[in-house]
Fold Xylanolytic transcriptional activator regulatory domain-containing protein.
Amino acid sequence: MVIRLLAAISEKPGLQDELDRALFFAIRHGHQQTVDALLGLGANPGREMISNGLHGAASRGWKDEMCYYVKEYNVPVDVPDESFMTSVMYVIAGVPPPYDSDAIDCLFELGADATAEIGDYGWTYAEYALAMGKKDLSRRLATVAEAELDRQLELEHRLKATREEGYQSFRPFEASDNQLAETGRFEQLPHQEIIEELSVEESIHNTLAKVHQGEGEYFITLAHAQCCILMSHFEVHNMWFSRSSMSTSKSVRLAQILGLYQLDSNSNWNRSATLPPPKDWCEQEERRRTLWAIFCGDKNTSGTTGWPSLMDVKRISTLLPASEEAFHFGIEEPSTTLSQVLSSDNSHCSLFACRVITTHLFHECLDHTYQEHQDPDPTDIRNSHFWKRHQDLYNGLATAFITLPDTLRGSHNQEAMALNLQLHTASICIHRVGAAQARKHNIPIEILSGTQARLLPAADAIFGIVASLADVSAMFLNPLVAFAAYMATNVFLEDYIASQNRDSEIKMTALMDLMITIGHENPVTASAAVQMAHELRKTGIDASAVDKVQDLMAKMDLKGPLMGQQGRVEGSVVFCPFEAPSGPAPPGVPSEFLRNNLGGMP
């Protein structure tokens, strides 16, 4: 009845104000069906100078609705009502603690001005909260506003310094067509890939130039460590794995010289004096984040190439990263070390910290698959080194899945998807090697079937996550997503060969088609798709598989092995094998030496 009445009202002219106000009150009173009906009838959740839908959601502390209105309806987050109240003020006035703080953080993340002055007297949000009797919230809002003002002041100083160096204006270029033609601005720009490569090459040149200056004072800096790890990420996306490894290695050594691995150590006997004491918690947190970004780069490099890791977890006493919100607003937050988390619960860790933990487990599992274990009795599943380590890693993965924070469960966002994909990939890797060892040493069938039974659920989970992706191409920019898809496709292939499972065939084909499609824009995924095509042809499942990737092969610059090579240990996979050197050998180094010593995996 209410919906029919609303529909009738909406047909009358001049009643948009009533629709918009009705939306506010429907949200305030939690009438979701009415809210949906009003939005369907054209109610504007961001109407200016009126109590609107965003204000209603703010008054209830509904973060999902606030995000939805701002992102989908392009509602200005600071839009005022008729009495100039903003969404932040609605939260302060209507939402009880501690939920008010979370809702305001959400609004600040959406772009609300933390330094806004409200009312005729220019009150701050902190003063308004104090007037509403919320002392704790008032103190927090004051801290956030102060941090934002400091950030703006620092930006102004940087802009002023830039202008003094000769860049007098940041206005866009404005000129007539004749002037544009004379300056060559109508010429076609190079492809984005070329521009990116030139930019990185310039960064590398500038970085290396400082290495040869002085005695290290020009390049032993936090910025250089950050530069090296960023360069390695770019090089991975271009499949320059040896170059990426060298950039990662440089960042690791710089981090060690700077003492980033012992920022929170209680011992002073071996403290590095390379860096001055941090000015505040934010600067210390930036150093921690740099260390852990380098840690993830090193562990992912080791895990996907089979090379030894350069960083020892036991030597790292630096605390794990705090939350993004704490770092952004400069609010100190307690943390713990990686060693402590691995022996307890990680459900209260920040998103970045969970990424570190996941990367560590991923590396440990893949490193286990590369080892050639010399056990006296490899059939002793209780006491042999291989099976004890295998069980420890399986327990570690199970614990990680159980203790993941709620925000990282399932497919809520790209970060949650990436972490879950990495854990499921690690699970596939260890159980493939476990199954191979069981077959090799004629271990009882129940052990073999037990470890094989864990492969298909992990592959199904990867398939489900990939199938739910809203932007598949963007997600596959992370090479580890391509690795996950490749390993899941392998599992479906092996299951179909063994059992003729129709469901596995369908999922295998779907993932293969997806990798081929994405491979046209993504060289890492293209290489994995070509490798998978060869596997399909070799097993006789699809004799035409290689024909389907001919377009990818024509585009690829095949200088080395394809992604996803079988490792030395039965059941292991080296996702990023070393590319064989091409071109003439360096002076004084025979080509035969390079071929015999740097040829990578067979």
User: Anything to note?
Assistant: The first helix runs from residue 2 to 10. The domain at 2-162 is CATH 1.25.40.20 (Serine Threonine Protein Phosphatase 5, Tetratricopeptide repeat). The longest strand covers residues 565-566.
